[in-house]
């Protein structure tokens, strides 16, 4: 399955937030980078069918947004917004079961789907723990689990590692990389270390446009963090 953004623009009044963006992303992990206000979240919301583009289209296989039936695309995607998984009285398993219900997964298949999601996010032992009692890192993993319910072809994660410590980010990075072996995964981040070793491609946005899109190995010499940061900062500050 391939995700295609074709000349996507989003305008609020006279302000253009996303400007004629075109991307083609196959299965794998794709990092979307840029400073605050670059248009990353708006582009991700458009990919997730939560923001209608002013022009252009988003397609995943034969599902096209906004020209076609949006339900076809929504059935194939999972989305983790930036502000997600606030404290809840539900247990982890209860929350994932609720997500199964929202995705119209048959009742007899929901328990197995919850087990699969728990295993994917390494929270099987916490299945009966209330979300509100989990650490911030674990709550973000529950959010990722919510996004992969139904085994979607497209998984969109907006700043999934925001506010996490180094160990939590490493765990989440490993989980995300594993999901990307079977789906198109688009991750927005401004933390270079989160994508230096695992991303397949790097896309950098600035003022609503794409300033570069390339394989991660072409972005920096031999995985050199300093080189990666230097090139990234030169792009967004120029």
TrEMBL record:
**What parts of the sequence cross the membrane?**
none
Which keywords annotate this record?
ATP-binding, Nucleotide-binding, Transport
MF GO annotations:
ATP binding; ATP hydrolysis activity
> Which positions fall inside the ABC transporter domain?
3-232
Keyword Transport applies: yes
- Domain of life the protein comes from: Bacteria
Q: Name the Gene3D superfamilies on file.
A: P-loop containing nucleotide triphosphate hydrolases
InterPro entries cross-referenced by the UniProt entry: AAA+_ATPase, ABC_transporter-like_ATP-bd, ABC_transporter-like_CS, P-loop_NTPase
Entry's family note: Belongs to the ABC transporter superfamily.
Q: Report what the protein is called.
A: Multidrug ABC transporter ATP-binding protein
Species, as recorded: Corynebacterium bovis
């Amino acid at each position: 399955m391939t995700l295609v953004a074709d000349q996507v623009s989003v305008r609020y009044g006279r302000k253009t937030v996303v400007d004629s963006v075109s991307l083609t992303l196959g299965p794998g992990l794709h990092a979307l980078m840029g400073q605050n206000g670059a248009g990353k979240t708006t582009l991700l919301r458009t990919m997730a069918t939560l923001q209608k583009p002013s022009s252009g289209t988003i397609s995943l296989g034969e599902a096209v947004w906004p020209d076609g039936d949006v339900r076809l695309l929504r059935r194939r995607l999972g989305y983790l917004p930036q502000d997600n998984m606030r404290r809840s009285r539900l247990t982890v398993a209860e929350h994932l079961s609720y997500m199964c219900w929202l995705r119209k997964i048959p009742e007899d298949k929901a328990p197995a789907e919850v087990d699969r999601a728990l295993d994917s996010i390494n929270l099987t032992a916490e299945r009966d723990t209330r979300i509100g009692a989990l650490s911030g890192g674990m709550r973000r993993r529950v959010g990722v689990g919510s996004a992969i319910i139904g085994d979607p072809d497209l998984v969109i994660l907006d700043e999934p590692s925001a506010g996490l410590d180094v160990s939590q980010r490493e765990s989440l990075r490993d989980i995300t990389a594993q999901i990307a072996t079977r789906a198109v995964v688009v991750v927005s981040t401004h933390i270079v270390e989160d994508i230096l070793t695992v991303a397949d491609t790097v896309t950098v946005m600035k003022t609503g446009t794409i300033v570069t899109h390339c394989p991660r190995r072409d972005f920096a010499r031999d995985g050199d963090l300093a080189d990666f940061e230097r090139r990234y900062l030169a792009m967004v500050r120029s």
